[in-house]
Amino acid sequence: MSEYIPVLIMLIIGAGTSALILVATTIIGPKKSFADKMEPFECGESPIVSPKLRFSVKFYLVALFFVIFDIEAVFLYPWAVLFKSLGLFGFVEMMIFLALLGVGLIYIWKKGALEWE
Amino acid sequence: MEILIPTINLESIYPEILITVFAILVLLLQVFTSLPGRKQLGYISLTGIVLASIIVLTQGGAFGENTALPIYSFSNLWVVDNFSRFFKLIILIGTGLTVLISIKYLKDEGIDHGEYYSLILFTTIGMMIMAGGSDLITIFLGIELMSISLYVLTGYTRKRLLSNESSLKYFLLGSFATCFLLYGISLLYGATGTTNLKGISGFISDANFGSPVLIIGMVLLLIGFGFKVASVPFHMWTPDVYEGAPAPITAFMSASPKAAAFAAFLRVFIEALPSLQGVWVDIIWVLAAMTMTAGNVIALVQDNVKRMLAYSSIAHAGYILVAFISTDKSGIASILYYMLAYTFMNIGAFAIVIIIGGKGEEKVHVKDYTGLGYRYPLTAAAMTLFLLSLTGIPPTAGFMGKLYLFSAAIKSGYVGLVTIAVLNSVISLYYYLKIIVAMYLKEPELDVAHDSLVFSPAMVIALIIAVCGVLLVGIFPSPYIAMAQQSYISF
Question: Per the structure, how many domains does chain B have?
């Protein structure tokens, strides 16, 4: 169990720091409350709106493409780091992977999915 | 740092590579050419499927010569043995027939895009990976590739509300089942330290290991696979999804993905978890009894033929589970043989459903079949053959298949379960006969306006193949049985 001691220490320090900050702000912070400040805060979005908000389906497409090409980048980083030790084999494998993704890009391009209008 | 480069044996994945190339080719042809109809893309996909079948047949020599097989490659992630080859052939036959019965349907519904064929081919790759994976991770990869493509295909008639609904249901429940599967895999990995099937069985037998973590992992895997093969009580998605999906996709889903799911199910449980057989045999006994009974009894009251066939496919999964628990050579061989027979008869029956259904799949009720025997004797005769085969009446493939399934279970001493199975076959006779009676013995109702049925050449070819398959596999079973038995030896 001894190898978990640092984790425990980390946990205690973390919890302690948070508790300390909370206690400190409660005691020494100024308290001026007004309506906007008392609202729940979430990324600058107003918490109470009509759920029937409509927005273009194109956003979904963009989000999907982002996920695909983001994952491509995720795979490229470790390959780039280990480029030398993977050698030619790694290079060829990666090129096949990129070619397959390239086909996907060509497909969505020709389909016109990349055009906003 | 030492990097372990896996052994690359491209030869062992030639069929998969070929199908991938054709899937991409079809996708690109769809966007780069303006073919008048998209029929050609269907035939191009078919070419790929036929070529892949030829490669599968010749991979590592003919069936029976097992000297070269099994070939393990990619760091034991992938195996080519007769078991996977047999299942790949079943999958490819199912896919080929599906493409044939789709061509005219897509044109009628105005959805004849290349993406459809491309997705079918991607599903096929997924299924082939499930059949050939010898590691839980490879099998999981195959399952996901298959499922995600199927979710899209289920909702392919996107203007039909029912199709959308079924796609969404399938997606939500399917992802949920995937979670079970993945959790099971992670627990097995946690208990044994490997995801390799042989490694897991080696670890368990070496350590004489029966920890609760292992049992829980096994049960979770059982739930995941139970969902994929649609066994009760994990069958809830089946009727809705089968009813809402485009009819060719329903035919496809009831045959090939079920075969692939059984391939993975069998391989994981018999290759990786033989030491836990005492536990899972009892669970599968109960599952089999429930699956057969629920499937058949609920099918009795169905009026929609697609839905009826959905419940019938649940019941057939139950029959296959009966042989599963015998776990010996004859049990596995009978499952392989039955899946082959089932592919022909079920896709055949769905082909007739597509023909009768007409545009927009409006005529899918039993009453729409009335009088068919007089107006289209050949079509009715083919439907009768498929339904008799599904019931298990000689001289069809379904009869021989059931005979082998049940005799394998009896040899292993499961007389009680086989009794339930036989009683269920009797129940099933009622609803299959309902359609036959409607076709031959009932006067068509006046409000059922019969348009003349349209037969496209591709559909006729598919029907001929299915009829020949049902008769050939049923009347001359020995070569196929021999092939199925060879497939177990190298397992």
Answer: 1
